[in-house]
Amino acid sequence: MFPRKFDYVAPSSLDETVDALKGAGFAKVMSGGMSLLPLMKLRLVSPELVVDIGRIPGLDQISEEGDMLTIGALVRHYQTAGSEKVPAALAAAAAYTGDVQVRNRGTTVGAVVHGDLAADQPAAVLALGGVIVVQGPNGVREIPATDFFVDTLTTAIEPDEVATAIKVPKGGSSAYDKLGRRGGHTDYAVAGAAAWVKKDNGNITECRVALTGVAGRPTLAEGTAEAMVGTDGSAGAIAEAASKAADGVSVLEDLYGSEEYKAHLATVYAKRALTLALNE
Amino acid sequence: MSTTSVLGGSVRRREDPALIRGKGRFVDDIKLAGTTHVAFVRSPFAHAKINSIDASAAMEMEGVIAIYTADDVRHLGLLLAQVAIGRLRPLLADGVVKHAGEAVAMVVAENRYLAQDAADAVEVDYEPMKAIVDIKEAASDKAMVHEELESNTLITWEAGPWGNEEGIAATKEKIAEAKKRDDIVTVSMEMKNQRLIPTAIEPRAVIADWNDGYGRMTVYSSTQIPHALAGAIAKTFGLAANAVDVIAPEVGGGFGAKLNVYADEMLVSFASMQLGRPVKYTESRRESPYNTIQGRGWVATATITGTKDGEVLAFELDGLADMGAYTQNFTVAIPFLGTFVGSGQYKFPTHWKIGCVTTHTMTTDAYRGAGRPEAIYYLERILDAYAREIEMDLAEVKLKNFIPESDFPGAVAPIGFQFDTGAYQTNLKALTDSAEYSELKSLRDKARAEGRHVGLGLSSYVEVCGFGPSALSGLGFSWTTYGLPSAFSGSGLVRINGDASVTVIIGTGPSGQGHETTWAQLVAGQLGIDYEKVRVTHGNTAESPMGIGTFGSRSAAVDGAASYEAALKVKAKAAQIAAHILEASADDIEFSDGSAHVAGSPDKSVSWEDIVTSAYHPHMLPEGMEGGLEAHSVFSPANATWPFGAHAALVEVDPETGFTQLLRYVTMDDCGNVISPMIVDGQIHGGLAQGISQAMFEDAIYDEEGNLLTSSLVDYPLPTAQDLPSFNLSRTVTPSDVNPLGVKGIGEAGTIGSAQTVVNAAVDALYDLGVRHIDMPLRSRRVWQAIQDARS
Q1: Domain of A229: which CATH number?
Q2: Which residue in the set A186, A255, A268 is minimally distant from B715, CB to CB?
């Protein structure tokens, strides 16, 4: 639990952050440090430079702009969990993240950018159709969540970029549910699902379901979403659609579940998340 | 003998203000000038030949002082172990490694970071070999874990009247008769009692400080056994017993994992002698599972043969226990400790056979309960299965087979050991007749009517603790290997200071049990002195009377009794002094409220301050009386103590996911008299958390190559307060007759009583789906799989 030697810098603006990352060798951006520091202490990750964005003003806000909600890079899990503006799926996923200490320190953007397959918030952002805002030497770009999660702990962010915010569209209704490693909502997810639906005239017009802990990255359950559209969202329709949740998903076995079990949980949590979303 | 006078009230633990405020002083808090720091180079392989070790580049690195390998320490011999059956551990791997994480080299540097950097730079050329991880494979002896041993089975413990010819014949005859009547049921199951990683909140830490001016070694260690450690270091380095001082300051939990002498304790002592500087090693959380012993790890088949109306004719347990690669302090003795309670609270013939098998994994040894949770788990699980098979209420089966209360005190278990006191029927009925138990039943029935899978589990236990009797020293209950030719007696010293405050010095050091509170209550109550004026000190072998250590729920029953008797000696002397001052008879002197009084004449009194003044001015004492006011006592009980109890749990299973939730937990423990109720409750709470955690969460998993897959707390889930319900605790009180306090032990009861209670409840919840057993831990995937398997 003793990290290798590293340099540390705490810039006071995003521009300074980008400058610090430029040509720095192996650098890591730190917000709450809840994922990065344990990895460094285990010597699994040994950056030469840690760029601590914790002192940059203005990043700790949840703000609304038109039909989009912006969550800044220093918004802690507890803020996301407790905000009435935040869609229910993401608020629940934040509430189920870590423990009280972690939720007071860790950030939603940090959890998303870390890209842990068993973390809750990435799937919520994916189901909500969110985008990740990053800033680099070539300016600001927005990466849709569907393109962002590449593989386990690997995302589309470049080494010289810093994630500054997440944007999620408002509207529709959503929910997140999971089975934690210690059961219930506790601990990392064995599996979980986030669901987002839009209804018009009693029929579902749009739907996205994303899975946590089932594949190597947060993954859309496309079969389920397609099957939901056009239905009335009844229990029967949900059950039918949810049964397709693992279709086409490359399921990953780990200490907490066999492939068969995880594929089964995908269908169970797709069903539970859809049911919760439609009753939101 | 009167025992009620020592019973204390619930007081708040006096240890807690310092601990809560971060003022407790643990080994890692101790910063001696000039301290050097250690990091170990650890093997990534479970079994490998070491072709070479190249530390030359590491030696050149910043801050590196020394790097030691087996060549440097071979002359010190192997690590001492009290029960030395099996292969003892080399201080550093010598040519070959036998488990993942085994220490291969020790780096000493100016700080821990630099030490770790240099450890990463030591180049070791390993030649990996096939690892033997599975205990059944090891027991087959197809390949050897250690070439020099004849078998991987180090010893087999066999016990019970089934073991002798007479017992076998009698039992067989009874079974044959029952068969003739077609009145026989046999239930048999192979069950795992999985390996666990003891996880004290404070990982182990040690500092050695050799002073060649004084010719003395001072060692600070997070240990449960300071005197044994001092002895082991003295023996290893050829020093006199009084040339090694071991200080165990605050110890942040031990659970048996610190009831051991460790190679790192010898190695930092060696390095300090070499370098002439203090040397410190603080185990990181990540290396703890590779460096500190693990627990449990059994596979066994339990079989009950009985009649259809609940009379058990025979119980057999046949299995294997995983010892890991190297034998340490009590390694192979742990299953033996299980045999003590192998037949539980019952009168039925029992045959016990457990083979102790070595594998290429970390050493196992004592972990809270140490053999007894395993023994009770198998017995109570199979008894529950038998009761279900004959469709009889488990409590009825128990009542039918319990050793009758009229046999106590001194009943002899079928497996051969003699109990102290017991009242099993009374205790079980106190639980099953309680409102709490009725509520569990009605909650279950109501939930079931709603279609929910809710189950009620019941189990009961007897444990053995309070070691112990001097006569057991021949069985290894002694520290002879560490140069302390002592039975497991207790000791305590009570001293009245000049201002009539009291210092109690005990040889046994706590690791969170609250000795400072309990002993103060015990002594204050005897002397009639305010509890706040009594201070209890411990943990420094140079200052304390010899102590055996805090383990096996022995402290109150053995060392507590010694301090109690020392207090009585002091009181008797003080009574004589008071009688002299008051011109009364010593027999008439009573103590209360800080003074001595003449019985019947409350105005004739003298304060403790005046008594002490006389005691330290011999001319004021009765003629011929020696000055001073302190006494030391050694207490050796005639028998161990045998606490018992019954537990009930209510769980709910979500059959769709397998998620199992503990809803309620109710206990009826009996640990004899209670000195400090809040501390006893706290011990039960912690014990329950660990037993329930074995049932539901924890699992040390090795892969086929011997890699530990669960070495971080991310993959080794521990319960938090939010995972556990509020515990509903009650007790019956059956005082022990082997110590003057009437106390038994309570440190391990919660753990011993709980794992099978939870599993019994889960099986109850899923019995209608066809589930008959689920191996621990009851993780969602396992429970779900058991449901699928039962359905198919």
Answers
A1: 3.30.390.50
A2: A255
